[in-house]
């Protein structure tokens, strides 16, 4: 179960700091669609994880 | 620009008809199932999550919180990115136990009907608000486009059309617990329309209003007013609350649960959704700022949430306006259809059926279908009433917050299902109840009816800015009460077992208990009481088919599986609580005496086998070890079986299958009493008896006697609380037959020794008789007496010959020791023997042809080897016809000397061939043979480390060939003088 606890802690950390992360993305001077670029990067990560996953994982 | 009401109504109904058509076509057999079950369709169908938010709500939110509107999309994207640890476990449970809603999951996991009903109440209340939000958006949009159309009429028409659609396509398969292919396809189509329309509008604005990305950037740099909401820092509390609610939505929103889990996606589709769903939401979110800025640039005056309609109207494009209206309609209809469908299932399972349990009806399936359709109608009408009464006065944001903060109260219990087996029903119910009360007092009532309720209590008023505080307070209280109550209250074993079954990575450990019903037929009889004979028969047959069992099943292990499967199937139809009640009541277990029932080892093994690919690290290594030991037991060359205390066979290895001729698949999980008679008696008697070993138990199988040794080890003591026995069965039949043979040989040997003694004792009187007859011949000249004396002498010689043979045979052990053997020429032995036999040729003109090299030598006793040839040639002579030919050939083969004696006699019948070397066995007539000749030959050849082989008949059914193989002797060559 330790892996789930790690995941849980990570998710909690991201959740708590998410407003600050987004604030950083939309700071003055950055292009308006920068949050979407970061989001797209996250989707690519999800795609890559799914692509290399073990078919029996689910 | 405006539209006339008939046009708008026609367009709306036309679109809903198109939706009907998509659903109808998808359910035709001609449309391949793999298209409808394609991951893309599944991912698109998940777009139901966004609902009206995607088209209208997000813009309203963006106007107020800037990029804060993204929280709704990012929250649920997080849930999908975490699918392997968040959604997959729930998918596993919902598939395995046919749990069609979160209320089913709660009722199953916490073994409580109250929990299921409470979830239904909270979800129902929250969903009314969510449905009202959809209806309001559609009615407001219709009112904007057609000012002459009354919003109430629009809302009513819209609701009625949806009742029709949902009842038709959503409640058709309630009898089979199956999926709704048509519905999924229609919802996916809805999402496609939504994404397509928003993307198109964004593109149109970007290209026509701003003239491209660069121009948009320029416009943004020069227009602070337009940028304002997107420049302001995020409102932390609202952002976090909305993100958490959206994250929880994947599990706790009824329509999301239904789409993610109940439509039974393939694991591949679920895997694709981990990135496919965030991508879909990204496509929905991306045009929002562009549309907002477009409205700013065009100076659109409509409320922010209706900008998607205001912009195309400002651009003067009726088709684009109608398309955006359709997008809103499709988003709202999709959410209403799926939510209502899901809620109707919850209401059926957790309010109607517990109050009106199904009694014997002619067609329970049809009854369930109609109840469900009525519930769909009631739900949508209730939502319409709520909308007309309260909802239409509230903003889309307020309605959304009420709904989401309500279902958020289900999150602790839902996470507990997967991650907290210690949580129990008391904790869950009290936590949810506390959360629900706070939700009603701080959010529902202030937003809907008494806005200043909280200010009277000295707290900040409930607004969109402060709602997150109350949502978090309710959630925190809920979690705390859940945790504390669970820790201080006791959990029932039943609930514990369900918790284990649901826990992440846990295997359910069912107990091995005996059912009252002894066969699948009895299942049908028992279930006929609550369900009626027809439904009972159909349900039992369905479960038997699902488990691939024969039509009549009696094995306890399989009956327990059958019971579970029936419960699962009934659960899909009537909810887990009612299913549990029926199964518990009508397919009960026998009362247990004394200790806890044993675990169902066979089931656990099977489940571990299914889990194999998921076991990694230490668990994987342990599983490998388990397999190794299991294989060792299975391949043990001794028959072994293991029997539980209740007589159930738990293991039956390969050797046991070979010995008994009974396949493991037929008996594992069955009781000893179901074995064939002989084995049943033997094993039952032995297992129940006190003896630990039983030797040489005779069992007549297939008409032949078999002997078995049985050994038993009893599993007892603290290490084996479950008890049981291991039984080893040794097949002793071969050994027993060998023993019999040995005893027979021993008897024959004694007879031989006795005969030698007798021969010796008889020899003296016979010599006396021979001497006396000799004397008699000297005493008289009477020819009669002389003749008689001759005959006496002949007979005494005959006696002597017999006695000599007997004594030779008996003496066969007393030969010259092997180390005193000398080189013997086989050719000489053969010639000597032929000479001896020629003396008594009896005038039959037999010929002997010898073809044996002179240098064929063996080490041995010449006298005895001669005896071998005399005996063999005498047999050949006796068998040969007159003027026959006996051929003797000799040759060398590698290190062996081979002698073959071939006659032209009548041959030896097959049935006698096996016995010819046995002492006293003869095929010759009376007074012609003693039956010791070949036996003697055999022993002499053995003494010389040789081998004898008899082939008969050789050709044309005649002739016998005796083949002797003796170690050849090779004289050492003379040493040469190397010094010469």
From TrEMBL, chain A:
Superkingdom per UniProt: Bacteria
Does the keyword section mention Membrane? yes
Please provide the record's keywords in A-Z order.
Membrane, Transmembrane, Transmembrane helix
Q: Where are the transmembrane segments?
A: 7-26, 32-51
- Listed name of the protein: Uncharacterized protein
Recorded source organism is Tamilnaduibacter salinus
From TrEMBL, chain B:
Q: Which InterPro entries match?
A: HATPase_C_sf, HATPase_dom, His_kinase_dom, HisK_dim/P_dom, HisK_dim/P_sf, Na/Glc_symporter_sf, Na/solute_symporter, PAS
Catalytic activity annotation: ATP + protein L-histidine = ADP + protein N-phospho-L-histidine
Q: Which SMART domains match?
A: HATPase_c, HisKA, PAS
Q: How does it sit in the membrane?
A: Multi-pass membrane protein
| Localization (cell) | Membrane
Q: Which residues form the PAS domain?
A: 625-669
What EC designation does it have?
2.7.13.3
- What keyword terms does UniProt attach to this protein? ATP-binding, Kinase, Membrane, Nucleotide-binding, Phosphoprotein, Transferase, Transmembrane, Transmembrane helix, Two-component regulatory system
Per the record, the GO terms for biological process are: regulation of DNA-templated transcription
Q: Tell me one GO molecular function of this protein.
A: transmembrane transporter activity
Give the enzyme's main class according to its UniProt record, as a single word: transferase
Give all residue intervals belonging to the Histidine kinase domain.
Answer: 757-970
Please provide, in alphabetical order, the Gene Ontology terms of the cellular component aspect for this entry.
membrane
Membrane spanning stretches: 6-27, 39-59, 71-93, 114-133, 153-171, 183-210, 239-260, 281-302, 322-349, 370-390, 396-420, 427-447
Query: Which protein family is it in?
Result: Belongs to the sodium:solute symporter (SSF) (TC 2.A.21) family.
What name is this protein filed under?
histidine kinase
Q: Which organism is it from?
A: Tamilnaduibacter salinus
């Amino acid at each position: 179960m330790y892996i789930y606890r790690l995941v849980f802690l990570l998710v909690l950390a991201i959740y708590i700091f998410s407003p600050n992360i987004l604030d950083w993305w939309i700071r003055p001077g950055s292009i308006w669609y920068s949050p979407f670029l970061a989001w797209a990067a996250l989707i690519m990560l999800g795609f890559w994880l799914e692509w290399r996953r073990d078919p029996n994982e689910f | 620009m405006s539209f006339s009401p008939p046009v708008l109504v026609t367009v709306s109904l036309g679109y809903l008809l198109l939706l009907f058509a998509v659903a109808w076509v998808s359910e035709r057999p001609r449309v391949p199932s793999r298209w409808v079950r394609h991951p893309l369709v599944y991912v698109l169908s998940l777009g139901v999550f966004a609902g009206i938010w995607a088209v209208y709500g997000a813009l309203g939110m963006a106007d107020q919180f800037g990029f804060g509107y993204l929280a709704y999309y990012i929250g649920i994207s997080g849930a999908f990115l975490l699918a392997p640890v968040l959604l997959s476990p729930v998918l596993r449970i919902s598939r395995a136990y046919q749990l069609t809603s979160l209320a089913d999951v709660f009722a199953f996991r916490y073994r409580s009907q109250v929990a299921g009903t409470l979830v239904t109440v909270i979800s129902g209340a929250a969903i009314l608000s969510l449905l009202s939000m959809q209806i309001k958006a559609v009615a407001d949009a219709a009112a904007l486009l057609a000012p002459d159309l009354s919003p109430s009429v629009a809302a009513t028409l819209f609701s009625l059309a949806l009742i029709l659609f949902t009842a038709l396509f959503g409640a058709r398969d309630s009898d089979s617990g199956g999926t709704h292919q048509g519905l999924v396809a229609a919802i996916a189509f809805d999402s496609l329309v939504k994404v397509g329309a928003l993307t198109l509008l964004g593109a149109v604005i970007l290209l026509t209003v701003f003239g491209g990305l660069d121009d948009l950037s320029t416009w943004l740099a020069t227009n602070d007013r337009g940028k304002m909401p997107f420049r302001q820092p995020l409102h932390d509390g609202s952002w976090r609350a909305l993100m958490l609610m959206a994250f929880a939505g994947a599990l706790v929103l009824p329509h999301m649960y239904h789409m993610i889990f109940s439509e039974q996606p393939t694991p591949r589709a679920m895997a694709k959704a981990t990135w496919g769903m965030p991508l879909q939401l990204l496509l929905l979110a991306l045009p929002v700022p562009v549309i907002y800025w477009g409205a700013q640039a065009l100076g659109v005056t409509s409320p922010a949430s209706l900008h998607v309609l205001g912009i195309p109207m400002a651009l003067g494009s009726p088709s684009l306006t109608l398309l955006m209206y359709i997008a809103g309609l499709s988003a709202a209809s999709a959410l209403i259809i799926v939510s209502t469908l899901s809620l109707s299932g919850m209401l059926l399972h957790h309010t109607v059926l517990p109050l009106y349990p199904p009694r014997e009806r002619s067609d329970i399936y049809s009854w369930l279908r109609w109840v469900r359709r009525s519930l769909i109608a009631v739900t949508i009408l209730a939502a319409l009433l709520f909308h007309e009464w309260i909802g239409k006065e509230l903003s889309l944001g307020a309605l959304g917050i009420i709904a989401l903060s309500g279902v958020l109260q289900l999150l602790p219990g839902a996470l507990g299902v997967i991650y907290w087996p210690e949580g129990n029903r008391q904790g869950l119910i009290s936590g949810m109840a506390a959360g629900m009360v706070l939700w009603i007092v701080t959010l529902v009532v202030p937003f809907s009816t008494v806005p200043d309720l909280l200010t009277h209590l000295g707290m900040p008023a409930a607004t969109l800015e402060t709602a997150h505080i109350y949502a978090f307070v309710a959630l925190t209280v809920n979690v705390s009460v859940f945790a504390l109550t669970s820790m201080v209250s006791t959990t029932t074993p039943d609930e514990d077992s369900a918790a284990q079954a649901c826990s992440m990575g846990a295997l359910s450990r069912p107990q091995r208990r005996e059912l009252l019903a002894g066969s699948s037929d009895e299942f049908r009889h028992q279930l006929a009481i609550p369900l009626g004979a027809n439904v009972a028969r159909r349900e039992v047959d369905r479960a038997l088919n699902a488990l691939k069992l024969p039509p009549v099943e009696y094995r306890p292990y399989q009956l327990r599986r059958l019971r579970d499967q029936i419960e699962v199937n009934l659960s899909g139809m009537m909810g887990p609580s009612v299913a549990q009640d029926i199964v518990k009541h009508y397919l009960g277990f026998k009362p247990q005496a004394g200790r806890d029932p044993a675990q169902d080892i066979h089931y656990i093994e099977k489940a571990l086998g299914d889990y194999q690919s998921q076991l990694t690290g230490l668990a994987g290594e342990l599983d490998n070890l388990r397999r190794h030991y299991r294989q060792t037991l299975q391949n043990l060359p001794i028959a072994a079986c293991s029997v539980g205390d209740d007589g159930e066979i738990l293991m039956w290895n390969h050797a046991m299958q070979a010995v008994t001729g009974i396949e493991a698949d037929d008996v594992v999980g069955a009781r000893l009493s179901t074995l064939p008679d002989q084995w049943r008696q033997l094993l039952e008697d032995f297992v129940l008896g006190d003896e630990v070993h039983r030797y040489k138990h005779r069992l007549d199988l297939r008409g032949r006697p078999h002997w078995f040794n049985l050994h038993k080890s009893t599993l007892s003591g603290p290490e084996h609380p479950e008890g049981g026995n291991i039984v080893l069965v040794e097949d002793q039949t071969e050994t027993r037959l060998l023993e019999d043979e040995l005893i027979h040989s021993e008897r024959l040997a004694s007879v031989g020794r006795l005969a030698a003694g007798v021969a010796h004792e008889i020899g003296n009187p016979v010599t006396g008789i021979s001497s006396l007859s000799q004397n008699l011949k000297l005493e008289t000249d009477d020819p009669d007496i002389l003749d008689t004396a001759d005959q006496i002498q002949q007979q005494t010689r005959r006696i002597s010959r017999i006695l000599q043979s007997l004594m030779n045979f008996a003496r066969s052990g007393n030969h010259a020791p092997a180390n005193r053997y000398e080189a013997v020429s086989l050719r000489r032995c053969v010639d000597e023997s032929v000479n001896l036999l020629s003396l008594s040729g009896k005038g039959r003109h037999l010929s002997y042809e010898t073809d044996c090299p002179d240098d064929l030598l063996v080490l041995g006793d010449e006298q005895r080897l001669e005896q071998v040839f005399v005996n063999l040639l005498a047999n050949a002579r006796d068998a040969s016809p007159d003027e026959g030919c006996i051929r003797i050939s000799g040759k060398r083969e590698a290190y062996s000397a081979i002698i073959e004696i071939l006659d032209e006699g009548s041959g030896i019948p097959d049935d006698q061939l096996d016995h010819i070397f046995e002492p006293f066995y003869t095929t010759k007539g009376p007074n012609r043979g003693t039956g010791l000749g070949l036996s003697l030959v055999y022993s002499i050849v053995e003494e010389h480390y040789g081998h004898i082989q008899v082939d008969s008949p050789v050709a044309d059914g005649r002739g016998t060939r005796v083949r002797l193989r003796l170690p050849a002797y090779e004289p050492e060559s003379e040493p040469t003088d190397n010094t010469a």
